[in-house]
């Protein structure tokens, strides 16, 4: 769409921007036919093998994206189905199973549609999302509706309590990390509001239950300091249901993805030579592994990591909370409840069971049949795990009959019922994560860190700080890890190229001598850095050789501000006195050289950029290998031709060699002055660089590693 409106000399920039956005999963992800066509039928033979553990939304998102990038992917799933904690069950009954509905027993609500990737997937599937309507009447124990005025007053009071808790944590500072949200709210309620009003107290408990549902945790375990740390990043827009259930997303995502079911992983080995994943008696080998198992599984220790995970990650796994939400799904022969609402609530006078069937979801408009789902949150969700299903259904029916039979509405027996047990499911051991007392949002970032120099990666809702405990958070974490794995793979491939060929070739000594001669007149110089490259090849990706000189008495680093972090620079300098020099080298692309030259802050900052941002290792001359030898030979031959041409031209013009050399030095000095005054003015050293070389290193160099990644 943009090609025609972008000048031709900028097309390489356009391609780089496009590739960057695609590889990071910012655009063109999902299940649209045009996107599916981009997935290679056969993976590239030279691409790495990636094992993905878990076929939930995180694992499926990563698997599809990895396949698009040409990786060889195998997904190992412990269950007999894909989707993980997203599970849509087809419920049916009646004569000839004429009545049916799709029940979301796990993740059900798309929380916000603006920017939500799952909303985009739904659109690709041609589905219109159903907005969850705001109307939510609450019913007392006797079945009567709660007085609207009391309802509004208690809700306003509850919101004021949350505001007071927010101000309290600001006053407490770091101490708030050791205090629970529940203790603060209940203390404020006793101090500022009259708890003698039974109905008001029951309403207050209902709101507490709703908060426990949102966080899948007892409020007594939620951190006062950070329980809502992700609120600023909430997706905008409505909360919605996907007609037909979220299983439709899973069904679309698994298409053509190689998944091996009923593979319960118990061991993950990782090291410099690759990874091994053990499932039962089978061993699966690969170059990298992505672990997407729920936080509850990591907490249980059912998967052994060899070597053990870093203590930093183990501590984060321990600190983060992981709670429980259960459901009772009921398929009825017909709809007997109101059709102008999607939710209604029920109060209790027992605070310990305030989350038991406190909220009902009506799926009649989206499930394809008369389906009601009752939620069980907080402490009640844990008790529910051991409650017989028949007892649970009986309790739910008593609540429904207490609400509707006084109105003259008969509540029929359900055709089919399902009770979830997410806490007892060995592949989830709970529902979703939260920030427990003592934890913070930083722990989500630690959960997302890769381990083993770019061999072991982690994804899932408990690894994404901005969108934890959501379906879209899990999906986005899969795309995030794909980008990290691609970066690591590219960086590893580049390093392998640099490391190969350590046996000296026949012309190794002549190349070493030629290298010394070539650097007597480098093509670029800045600070302690000098560069030689081919003038005939303007391609930004063409190779060049960078030399860094330590303890060069001629270089005083004029024009650069000293940087406080001098440790690396000074350690290298300390090995040599003022009369000695150390030369170290590396291969860079031409674009990387230009980016390096633009770094401000002196040689220390340039070294930091070189090692941290570009992930480059500086080596001695012998370590450059055969790739550098061919570059040296090419530049030497090119300069020989250039010298003959320049000598011939100089003799015709009557210019001596001395004057030519003097002129060149003046041009270099002038270029440095111009660059310091106005960055956008091209220097004489850039005369051969076309405009499309002005590409950010983040977009152009696909083998770069982000600073947060650790790869070898």
TrEMBL record:
Domain of life from the UniProt record: Eukaryota
Pfam families: Amino_oxidase (PF01593)
Matches recorded under InterPro entries: Amino_oxidase, FAD/NAD-bd_sf, Flavin_monoamine_oxidase, SWIRM
GO MF: oxidoreductase activity
Biological-process GO terms, alphabetical: chromatin organization
Coiled-coil intervals, chain numbering: none
Domain SWIRM: 1-38
Keywords: Chromatin regulator
Sequence similarity: Belongs to the flavin monoamine oxidase family.
Protein name: SWIRM domain-containing protein
